[in-house]
Structures are given as C-alpha cells and as structure tokens.
Write a structure and sequence with these properties.
It is a single chain. This protein is an alpha+beta fold and 299 residues long. The chain has a single domain (9-294), classed as Bira Bifunctional Protein, Domain 2 (BirA Bifunctional Protein, domain 2, 2-Layer Sandwich), CATH 3.30.930.10. 35% of the residues lie in helices and 25% in strands. It contains eight helices and 14 strands. Strands 1, 5, 6, 9, 10, 11, 12, 13 and 14 form a nine-stranded mixed β-sheet that branches. It starts with 8 loop residues before the first helix and ends in a 13-residue tail after the last helix. The mean pLDDT is 96.
Length: 299
Amino acid sequence: MTDSPWWKSSRHADRRPFLAARAAIVRALREWFWARDFVEVEPQALAASPGAETHVHAFEARGLYLHTSPEFAMKKLLAAGESKVFFLGKCWRQGETGPLHAEEFTMLEWYRAEAPYDLIMDDCVELARLAARTAGATHLRWRDETCDPFGAAQKRKVAELVAPGLAGDAFSAAIVGVEPQLGSPRLTLLYEYPVSEAALARRCLHDNGLAERFEMYACGVELANGFGELTDPAEQRTRLEEAMSEKAKRYGAAWPIDEEFLAALAHMPPASGVALGLDRLVMLATGARHIRDVLWTPP
C-alpha cells in the first residue's frame, strides 16, 4: 500500500482494475434484482433512529443520524405495500476503520415479503457467484484464504460452533474465534443465532430461544447478515429497549426508539431481508488487499 494520494494518476492506475470490476459488479447486481421484479428504493440517509445495534456508533447531525443501515425505512416500505425492494447505497458507522472497514461504505440490502429466510440465503449465494463471475474470478480471495463460491454452500448452525448459553461479550468472543475457519474452501451460512444476539429477527418455530438470523462468510470474512424479520411490535419494542439500555450502560448514550417503525410493524407482512457489504464482496471477487483499493474516492 502506497502513501500516494488516491487522486494521483499513478495511484489511480494501480487501483483502476479494482474500480472497473466494481462498476461491472454493481451493474450486474442491479440487473439481477431488476430481472426478478425488485424495486430499487432510496431511503433518506438522515433518520430519527439509525438502527438497533448496541456496539455500532452513528454520526449525529442536528438531532438526526446518518443511517447505519436503511433497515427501518425499508420495513416501513413493506408495511406501505411494497413486496420486493432493494437498496444499493451509502451507510455510515463511526469509528469503523481498517482493511475491511470504512466509516462510509456501500450496502446492498434487500427484502422479500412472504418469503422464508432460507430463500434470502440462496440469494446471497447466487450474488456471491455473480460477483465472482463478473470479475472473471474462479475463487473469492482474502489474504491467504480462498473460497469457491460455485460449489455447494455449507450451512452450519451456531450451536455447532458456539457453546449453548453464551451471551453478550462471551458469545461475541466465541464467534470471533471461529470466524477464520468459516467460508473456506466454500461459502458458509451460519444460522440460528440466540434471540439475545438477533434483536430484529423473529424466533424459530422449533426453538423459542433461537432466532431466524444468518450470516454468510467467505474466506473468514463476514459478507452478509440476514433475518426472518420480527413483525411483533410489542416484542420488538422490548428488544430495542434492552439493546439501547445496554448501549447507554456501555457508552453513555443511546439512540431514540423509532416509534414510527414500531407502528409500521403492525402493518408489515411476514418477510425476510439481508444486508450485504458491497465493498467487501468486490474485494474478495478481485483479490484486493484493502478496502481503500475498491473505493472510488477513499478517505
């Protein structure tokens, strides 16, 4: 990695193949959704409440927040009557920097009304294959790890890898410990998280203590995080209040509860949705070594 500014012609020339691949992948992704009758939506970036995550920090702007995900807004659109929607645009998370993180990043997020969450899992696998194919890659790559996205994806329950009963920091530490082994040599879909680790996901019918949450991994890198969506306003309020109480205890501040979101849930159909990190997907499809290589105007 050179210290030369990104706008220097020599530095841009080094990054140009990654950026050209990014542009091609973005086009292919949009065409994939359009071919399946999804509607591309553009939620406002400024929100009254930016999300439900305890450990994610948002940028505040005059009492509003830059969204960390368009999730709340997109679920309101489902309540309004939309059935298949996708978003491909910017999100912001304060303090997230590093080879795989940028404070301003691009999210691909989509929702299917009346669809089980295993269908959304299938979408993720298909899009990982599409990105690799568009980039002319036979494998996804990150550092010394490779992943064949064209082989059958591996599905693993969280309980296979993490001891039952762990919560909070202990659970997070356990997941971090197993992440390097996920997604090599093929895509891994890790699913059925404890309810305590899935604030926006509905409970599994077969086990009230588990939730319909999954994450997709390639080369030890988390690419996507999805849910069978919780639509019970009362339970969702309880979970949001618990998450924000923990946030206030740990960080001294919490986000307000989005009352409009809770009201919309009463009108939202059963649905499944997922958020996928576009920058990371491009990185793995092109073999880029740092997220700055795939951002058009990196910080």
